[in-house]
Amino acid sequence: MRKMNRRALSVLLLASFIVLGLVGYVGRYLADGERWATYFSRLNSLSEGIVTDRYGVLLAAFTANDNHFNDDRSTRIANYHVTGDFWDRTGSGILTSFSGELHGYNPVTGMTQSRHISMKLNVDAEINKKAYAALADRKGAVGVVNYRTGELLCMVSSPAVDPTENEPDAAEGAYINRLLSASFTPGSIFKLVTAASAIECVKSIWQKSFFCEGEAEVAGVKITCPYEHYTQDFAGALAVSCNIAFSQIAISVGQTEMINHVRRWGFLDSHDLDGIRTAPGNYPLEFVGDPETGWSGIGQSTDLVCPFSMLRFVSAIANDGIICEPKLIDDGQPPVKSVLVEPETAKTMQRLMRNNVTTTYGDIRFPGLTVCGKTGTAEVGDGTSHAWFTGFLLDEEHPYAFVVFVENGGGGLSVATPIANTVLQALVRRGTDMEY
Ligand SMILES: [Zn+2]
């Protein structure tokens, strides 16, 4: 009897190992099956695939026994984080994320059809080239989306490599897409989040006055400001980006409501850009007390923001609160829309962000454009700072929202705004006879 039991037990054990193994296999098959099949399809099928930009410019193509990219080396490099490469080194380019689709692979039958597949993207390869050149070998990212349609017009991350080179001389971090796959200290662009939260939570915000002498004790802790801003109202404090005012504003909102807004506006989430997952952000979620809440409200503390999440937020503000989810691929389908920001809050933020440019940065930095925005200079602890600029054009013909980020790049106003201007000027002049 005891022997029988032992035998039954071992059979049972064996059976469970088989079931476990099978479950594991099916799980991995569903997750990676497309990738496994790629190897076979590349070798055995007669499939051909082509990836083009919005104007039909070839970005990547393959046949059963050959791979191609754009003939121009700088176009290949500028668009590297869009295409990825055939070695799967970025982990997030089109060639990696859609390898199965591009090869006509069917995960249910496990078969690869021999067919010609073409994929048209919303990005503009030429604009990506402009943006990459503007980053000038610095680490950083540029993203531009049409906030009325969700078309992602520009997606660039620097440094990048030439996808045709098997062993490129890659700079540090060349395989990270800094627009989608990483989060950084936001610094003062985060004051947009604090300002929008205050509009919703602090009824007296428009009557408040703030005083800055370059440093102040806020909730018992010294907070410094690079300038003495003296007496300011809410709009003025955002325009000059006063740390003392905004740490007080964040404390007025309170940590709980700050968390609610940060979460609601998607800063903590990983988003889905046509199947490519983006990096989640960070905000202090455990109780930290007033001084740290103050720091978090000016984009320091443990705040981290993925540039893509900031692009979503400003594009919803520009579109009266409605987010048209950014789309990398032009599949002919309308964008997925939802209310991200309360429409009244969004309209108020539009006025505040326009006021930032007219009263502080100067329209002269953006000739002929009507820019609404916020700069950021994020201190990162090693004595350097990240340069940021994010916002949108108030222009029905060119409804573009943007984010520019330069890692350890210096000041937002001096470093990031000229890059935004270069890219936006090029986009607005696209299709006209004007030099761009
Ligand atoms: Zn100040």
Short key terms for the protein model shown above:
binds zinc ion; Beta-lactamase; about 425 residues; five-stranded antiparallel sheet; four-stranded mixed sheet; 17 strands; globular; alpha+beta; single chain; about 40% helix
Distance between the termini: 88 Å
Secondary-structure content class? alpha+beta
Helix count, DSSP H or I runs of 4 or more residues: 14
Dominant shape: globular
In the CATH scheme, what's the topology name of the domain at 187-429?
Beta-lactamase
Roughly what is the average pLDDT, rounded to an integer?
90
Biggest sheet, open or closed, and with what strands and sense? 5 strands, antiparallel
> What small molecules accompany the polymer chains?
zinc ion
Name of the top-level CATH class of the domain at 187-429: Alpha Beta
Low-confidence stretches: 35-44
> CATH-wise, what's the superfamily of the domain at 187-429?
DD-peptidase/beta-lactamase superfamily
Give the total of beta strands. 17
Q: Largest beta sheet: what is the strand line-up?
A: 6-5-17-16-15
What's the architecture of the domain at 187-429, going by CATH?
A: 3-Layer(aba) Sandwich
User: Any idea what the radius of gyration is?
Assistant: 25 Å
Helix content: 25-40%
Q: What fraction strand?
A: 15-25%
